[in-house]
Each structure stands twice: as structure tokens, then as C-alpha cells.
Amino acid sequence: MGASLTSGSLALKAGLSQPLLLSGANIAASYKTDRWVVEYSHGMWLSYDRVGRTDAERAQDLDLDSPWTTGFGLGYRLPWRFDLRVEFKAHRYRVTPPGSASFAYTTFSIGPALNYHQPVYNGLGFDLTVRFWPNVTTTIKDDQQAFVDSEGNQQVHNAHDLGVFPNVSLTYTF
């Protein structure tokens, strides 16, 4: 007999990686049935200055942040508290080169995520998730933005690609 949507559980999540590593926040909600999981998440105020910038972004001394990132995932529950999902995300970036005007763009990604849930006590638990978010498309032409650096040199910023993104979340399941 198939799993019904009425036989599931709702969980609210607060990302721990975002405030600790990216000086931002992330909230999420997931609904799980016997076999399926659906999740929506929204991140905000993420700064990639400490971690997350590419070598090229560091060399160009770019200030890179995400005012928001949002999306959803659909997945299948596996044994041993795991689930495997495909996630659809939109990430807004703001880039500020030294001595130059900032610019913004959005990337869209589709990728897999492997999640493990560890219950702790009375509905409280942790989710450990590894995601791969490759860019599918962006809102900037040819996925690049030209800018002039503080010394007057023409530079090119390639659209930021999050790639592999691990996360730890505190969860409460109702």
C-alpha cells in the first residue's frame, strides 16, 4: 500500500552552518511521509567573505554576499534515517569590487542532496546534509560580469557556483 500525505510529519529547521560560517540565517520546513520528503528553505544575509569565495574572487578582492537564496527539494526516504533529494534553488548574489560599483545577479541550480536525520530528544534533532548545487543558468549574459578594479584594470567576474554545500540544521519534528 502506498504512503498517503496524511501519514506524515512536519519538521521546522534552523540552519547552523549559515550563522557560524556565512554570518547569515536559514530556515526550512519539511514534510515526510513513509516514502517521500518535500522541503522548502530560505536563506538570507549570507556573506562569503570568510568561506565560500573562489580563488579568482579572492584574487580580485571581491565582497560577495547573498541577500537571499530560496528553493525546494523533492526526495525519497532511504533506510537508516537517510533521504535522497533533487533540489531546485535560486541564489541572489551581490558583488562589490574594491573601488567600483556593486552589481547583482541570480543563479538557478538543480542538484542532488543526501540528508541524514539524527533524533535527539522529544522531537528535537539534527539534520546533516550534503548538497551539490551546480549552476544551470544565470541572469547575467554569458554567466560573466565585467568590472573595473580599483587600479583601473578591466576584470571579469564569473557567476558564482556554490557547488558542494554541506549543512547542519537543528530540527523540531511535530
Query: From the 3D coordinates, which CATH architecture would you assign?
Result: Beta Barrel
The succession of helices and strands, N to C, reads EHEEHEEEEEEEE
Name of the CATH first level: Mainly Beta
Indicate the overall shape: elongated
Q: How many DSSP-defined strands? A: 11
Tell me the major beta sheet: 8 strands, antiparallel, barrel
Total individual domains: 1
Computed CA radius of gyration, to the nearest angstrom: 18 Å
CATH topology: the name is Porin
Structural summary, described in words:
The chain is mostly beta strands and 174 residues long. The chain has a single domain (5-173), classed as Porin, CATH 2.40.160. Helices cover 6% and strands 64% of the residues. It has helices spanning 17-22, 55-59; strands at 9-15, 25-32, 36-47, 63-77, 82-96, 103-121, 124-133, 135-138, 144-148, 154-158, 163-173. The protein has an 8-stranded antiparallel beta barrel. A two-stranded antiparallel sheet has the order 9-10. It comes from Longimonas halophila. This is Outer membrane protein beta-barrel domain-containing protein.
